[in-house]
Write a structure and sequence with these properties.
With about 240 residues, the chain is α+β, with helices and mostly antiparallel strands. The chain has 2 domains: about 80 residues, Nucleic acid-binding proteins (OB fold (Dihydrolipoamide Acetyltransferase, E2P)), CATH 2.40.50; about 150 residues, de novo design (two linked rop proteins) (Up-down Bundle), CATH 1.20.1440. It has 5 helices and 7 strands, in the order E-E-E-E-E-H-H-H-E-E-H-H. The strands form 2 sheets. The chain has a 5-stranded antiparallel beta sheet. Strand 1 and strand 2 form a beta hairpin. Helix 1 runs parallel beside helix 3 and helix 3 packs across helix 4.
Length: about 240
Amino acid sequence: MAEKTIKTIEGFVLRSSPYKESDAMMNVLSSEGLFSFLGRGVQKNTSKNFASSQLLSKAKFSLVEQKNGGYALQESEVISLPDGKSDLTRLAIFSFIAEASVKLISEEEASVIYPWLDQTMNLLKEKGKEASRALIYFCHLLGVIGYGLEVDECVVCGKKTDIIGVSFREGGFVCRDCGSASSKLTARDLKILRFCFKCGLSDALRVSFEAKESLALLKRLILYVEDFTGVKLKSLELI
């Protein structure tokens, strides 16, 4: 019985794991959900599907149903490829975005985060703002999976003034009366976090923060997620 095309999806490759000789198991995030399928021969650089199997490549994928009930890649058409071959910082950010997405996003949440991933990858075509783009994306990812921070008021008492820091245990901003020395952040850091968690897609176009401050906040958020979910993000070591 011939294989039957199931559907064509458009999305980003979050992971391409070697399988057998030159095959790979691919994980793709699309506006329709998360898809996993076998890419036969995609590890060969001579494969017509090689480019579309690369990390965070955006492509159209035609899938077929296999006898075992799984899916396999029939053909693909590249839409865009991330440019990071000669820049270790960009490669680290790409690895982080892909790993966080594949490890933290569920099937039900995929369609919600997809516009943000699409926007982020478009913005990352402009070099030099990688850290702030990744920070904004991760903040919205946290909101989607239920770990967003309360950034409008003190999460303990509801006070809107005299905010001095963040309590990750409580899940948001804290005021001077409710916070502690370990929760203190600068006014600049608090402003950045509030923007990142509150901004819309169009707002993200008009801002960027210093790489050093963005990376410092990003690392704190990654550790927060690891502590509360148990999910370890290996790319933390790279950034």
